[in-house]
Amino acid sequence: MRVEVEAFPGQTFPGAIYAGEPHGRRGKPELRVEASVPNPKGVLKPGFFVKASILTGAEKSVPFVPEEAVVSFAGIVKVYVIVSGKAEERG
Fold this sequence. Notes:
8 strands
């Protein structure tokens, strides 16, 4: 798990989840977690707003392209790759 703090844009702080509980309310599934984020320099303060990312798994053999290379128009998705200095469309 990692946490991004509004007070420190562009920085992430690693952490770990130590408790979790499914919690559904009004038909919306939720997961409440408790996490610990080390703060050795004391820069994180109570009341900071954070956004947490939880990595649930990683696939090592999946091809990856930058988001900017993917174009979607009228329900058709294409990827552009650079070949010999020119952009080529792939379906």
